[in-house]
What does this fold into?
Amino acid sequence: METKDTLSSCSDSEEQQMQQIQDKAKKSCMVSFRQLHSHLKLLSNNDLKGTQTESGFKRAFATLFGQDLETFTGTMFLNMDQLDKQLDKVKFQEIGSMAAFKVLKTQFQMFIKSRIYLDDEYVIMTRNYFLQYIQLAIREFRVTLIQHMESVKKSIDERAHHKREYDSRVNERYIQTIEEKVDTSKVLDASLVKIKSSGIELVEQDTSSRSGNDAHANDADIIPIYDEEPMAEVHTTAKINIFAADQ
It folds into this structure.
């Protein structure tokens, strides 16, 4: 019993450690997400609204991202919100988190894969407006974006790994508990059978004993019974034949 309690205590301690690892992985994941979120917020600079720089940046943005700024950033923030909700759940869900991440990443595929090598005047203006609006060069913004994306992806994979390990351990303990209950049930059943068998023997012995005693008691109580009463003793009296004397 003491060994079983010790093993149970060790298992509880191990599960607590695994839970702490999951909590730590979640914090790391949320840090990566917030860094990505802060980086993408550079695409929406309200301080430059209505300026020539914003107007020039919108043209540059459409060239780089293949979509107008307002539509793209509106969808982007919705996708970020969905990813945030998935990553911040108490019970981590790998499928939902990865799906939300892929939606966001897909939105940036055109920009990530685009390359501007030409040195014509339009390309130079695009680069300049991008730099003025975001305070980062196009290449620097792209490299940092990819790094943050990879960091979020890696953190999701790590959380999924720790979650699978934890679930596997919980399942093992559950199966072990079921097996212990089955073993205990078998022991109890065997004990009941033994008790029942002993009970039958005792009953049989007791019945036999009582039967023997009853037989002796019955013998002691037997009184001979006669169907007829004893006949009274008959005395024969000789009669004198008075006629014989005369002969």
Remarks:
- Residues 2-160 form one domain.
- Residues 1-7, 225-229, 231-247 have pLDDT under 50 and may be disordered.
- DSSP finds eight helices and no strands in the chain.
